[in-house]
Write a structure and sequence with these properties.
Layout (H helix, E strand, L loop, with lengths): L5 H8 L3 H9 L6 H14 L12 E6 L7 H18 L2 E6 L3 H9 L3 E5 L4 H8 L5 E4 L9 E4 L2 H14 L4 E7 L4 H14 L6 E6 L6 H10 L6 E4 L2 H13 L9 E6 L12 E4 L2 H16 L10 E3 L3 E3 L21
Parallel strand pairs: 1-2, 1-3, 3-4, 4-5, 5-11, 6-7, 6-8, 8-9, 9-10
Antiparallel strand pairs: 10-12
Helix pairs in contact: 1-2, 1-3, 2-3, 4-11, 5-6, 7-8
Length: 337
Amino acid sequence: MAKVTLAIIAQRTGLSKFAVSRSLSGKSGVSEETRRRVQEVAAELGYTRPSPEPEPLTLGVIFHDTDLINSELHLLIQNGAQSEAQRLGYRLNMRWTHQADEIEAFVRSCAGAVLVGPHGRDSLARAYALGRPIVRQGWLEPLEQADHVGGTDHEAGSAVANYLLALGHRRIAYVHGTPGYRGRVERFYGLREVLEKHDDVEFREMKFDAETRFTEHLRAAHAEGFRPTAFFCAHDGLALTVMSELLRLGYRIPEDASIVGFGDYSAATQISPQLTTVKVFGQQMGAACVRLLDDRINGRIPPDISLRVHITSRIIERASCGPTKTPEIAAPAVSAD
């Protein structure tokens, strides 16, 4: 039997499709006589109104608003989450906050949420208590039973170690910068894991806060007889600082020193020489967070199993790295300012 449409009813009644639609939906713009006539013809023909399209579910992404060091990564995560939510048919809302009350209220309004950054234990506990699916992008406690999407910091450190060793470097510094960032520690652990297996390699970690210049640490290292030929920096911004300071001291890059960053953010290609770095795929992380929420909402994952999704980083080779020079040629000395 052919489907009864508004056009068929309009033809039978001699009315426009607009008048038929208004009559059947109960909207104004037609007389009661016309409405009754259309409803009678519709019933006679066996017309049934199509079910309305269900409203899309809403997902939420909450960024920790004081985690400024990762602002470019967060923008990439946002873009990836938006694109994937649209593809899967979800509405996506964003919020930037670290306040527990605001986080709880926001999660309550969503079918599932992504929490990005170092949110506090109270905020997390209150969010989980609502029973919504939650995916985290940020560091977890060991074996914490929580869904998580992240990068490969430890592996990246090990990969950079192998990369620099292959270029002949045997005196390597890890420029940590300000302490307190878990990802930076994991990168150092990965680097150390490889380098400490080589008896001919000397390496050390350089930690300093905003009040201490990198040059002071380099000067102290030289005074102790440690003259690195390669620097692995905990993030691209730190690598730019190191490169600028070394160039100011008369270093040639990469002839006197190789530099590797982390992140592959916009500044990596806006300097000369362009920066060799480890690319973090933030957009893919955001998309993976949404896919994991979708799996939870649709029951594709056993509720008693927590998942870790790692988006594998990649070394991007540019002009800031090269083979180590011969031992007879010394890098510029660092004199007192």
